[in-house]
Write a structure and sequence with these properties.
Number of strands of chain A: 17
Strand order of the largest sheet of chain A: 6-9-7-8-10
Distance between the termini of chain A: 43 Å
Number of domains of chain A: 2
Structural class of chain A: alpha/beta
Strand content of chain A: 15-25%
Shape of chain A: globular
Radius of gyration of chain A: 21 Å
Oligomer: homodimer
Order of helices and strands of chain A: EHEHEHEEHEEEHEHHHHEEHEEEEEEH
Largest interface: A-B, 37 and 37 residues
Chain lengths: 359, 359
């Protein structure tokens, strides 16, 4: 079986405004000190697992050019441009159908977000290889779980139990998927030792996911098969453009994972971070003795526990605490660390006021 | 007697960085919503009290051009440029000597800072007229005191007592001048009803202040008489440049007011503010329901009790409280309201690093 990978890169990254913008979202930026962007690193860390010609990118059509520019090693036809966002289920189903059209059935398919951080790449690829082994061995859906380190309320959780069927070390059966919990529930999950974070990374055979799609989301299944049938021909772009927006918008978690059978999870401990909002910057970069992370031209006086990302101008922070400051050419964000989720309200405000240049 | 006014405009306004800079200090800026700068307003509010040709500006030579540009109605020779700062005593003594050289002795002289806010201009000019009447009536030094409204620790105070000699309503004798108090002492002053804020505004005859200078600061007296003797001639600039820096640096409060006799004060209640640091901006402008004062392109989400002065770019403040944000083309200040005095540490840092462009 061929090992293929599908990288989902349609996200808008609104929580990283003002650095991420509608036309340049998070996955096409570097939020670490690396020169490479997050999607470039996502492709690179598949080295030894999947060949570049077997990597597929599903992104929004407005990012198509960016994807081609940043990933010249990926065959052009492997970059699939959604005319509109339809959440993860149609995206994954289409990719599976395209892979079967291109290579025939029964290929292994890794599904990976394009904007997560992985610190320990060797452990990551080892985990993927183990997931591939499970997926190859039957009609199984494998999800990579993350061992929680604190009671995060921004992630979904996976409840697992000891596997009684496969007899493979480090593989567990999934009892259920749960939505983002409140803080007390999250503390309980952490204390129980029975829950993992849902990373949104999946491994299965194309035939397995398409069989489940056919059964649980037949409308999505028939839609993507029709579109994928034109893959590799001049008619594909039109079929995609016409057919995709008719598909229902649904997540693979809700549409498939919460309802399907034979779901397994492999707990990964490879320094994962979903880089979900500006708070991630201090987690993934080292802070100084005062708890500050600063980049660019910054003077701090009596300033503690701040993340300050300078642009072209000097930023002087005096007596500031627990605050995130991000400067760009046309906008500056100053955000209390307890209010990072409200950055989206700035974007709502800009949309209402038709200030497209700032979005 | 001619009513002359001396406006002191040599200050650097470092506490208003980044808006005020070494080459464009506070008095030459507008910090209110007015178009006029603070020094222009200082001159304007003398209308009906002193004629423009009788107004003198003492400023640093690096601000000479700004003063001529902003105050075209003032005769060029009345703009006196100090080669270096020597505090208020030499500045006032030189101005007094110049006025006597130009107009002969016994002129009334108002001494006024260039960077204070006055809300009620009619009450202000009435107070000045009363001070002029006291100054005219003898060899008296009159200081304008301000009725305190809260226990400010950043000002000097004037202790006053009932006048038993002049018999003029609203005029009091000064018992003593006191330096900036600590907060408990300031609370005691406020409660006692026996103290006024020292505004740094004075009224006297040129002969009175020069007599006191001759007696209490003879070195300053002889120095400024020698310089002023060249006023109106081609030699004045050289005399000023050579002679001024030899004068000792001293305030008129310490050098004269704390030691002289026949000192009177007139309490003014004309909406005075010394606009001493960024906290003044919210005092002199009206804040909205959330306690914010914003100007420019600003979006606030969950933000309270902030002063945000935007520049050319959008500022988005999310969940921020008690903070001052000031944006300019090349620098942005983010300062907790309890740390406004530390803005000068930013300037020290910039000086140490030889970053003259930002000073």
């Amino acid at each position: 079986m061929r090992i293929t990978a599908v990288i989902m890169a349609g996200g808008k990254g609104e929580r990283f405004w003002p650095k991420s913008r509608t036309r340049l979202p998070k996955q096409f930026l570097s939020l670490t000190s690396d020169k490479e962007t997050m999607i470039q690193k996502t492709v690179e860390r598949l080295k030894g697992v999947a060949e570049p010609e077997d990597i597929f990118i599903v992104t929004n059509k407005i990012y198509e050019k960016l994807a081609h520019e940043q990933l010249p090693q990926i065959p052009a036809e492997n970059i699939i441009s959604e005319p509109c966002g339809r959440n993860t289920a149609p995206c994954i189903a289409l990719a599976a159908a395209v892979i079967e059209k291109k290579y025939g059935g029964e290929q292994i398919m890794l599904v990976l977000p394009s904007d997560h951080l992985i610190r320990y790449e060797e452990m990551y690829t080892d985990t993927l290889r183990q997931a591939i082994a499970v997926a190859e061995s039957g009609q199984r859906l494998v999800t990579i779980g993350i061992t929680p380190t604190y009671p995060e309320t921004g992630y979904g959780y996976i409840q697992f139990e000891r596997d009684t069927t496969l007899g493979m070390r480090g593989v567990y059966q999934v009892s259920r998927f749960v939505e983002k919990p409140d803080i007390d529930t999250a503390r309980g999950y952490l204390a129980s030792g029975k829950y993992l974070w849902n990373s949104g990374m999946f491994v299965w055979k194309t035939s397995t996911i398409l069989m489940n799609m056919n059964k649980l989301m037949p409308e999505v299944y028939s839609g993507v098969v029709e579109i994928a049938d034109k893959f590799g021909t001049d008619e594909f772009a039109v079929a995609l453009s016409d057919g995709y927006e008719k598909l229902p918008s649904e997540s693979v978690d809700f549409g498939i994972m919460e309802k399907a059978e034979e779901i397994y999870t492999i707990p990964g401990s490879f320094g994962w971070d979903d880089v979900g909002n500006w708070l991630a910057v201090e987690r993934i970069n080292s802070t100084n003795d005062l708890g500050n992370y600063v980049e660019g031209d910054v003077i701090t006086i009596g300033t503690k526990h701040c993340t300050i990302c300078g642009g072209k101008r000097l930023i002087a922070a005096v007596g500031v605490e627990n605050t995130i400051v991000v400067d760009t050419d046309d906008a500056i964000l100053i955000c209390d660390k307890n209010h990072t989720q409200d950055v989206k309200k700035v974007i709502e405000n800009l949309k209402i006021c038709n200030r497209a240049a700032l979005l």
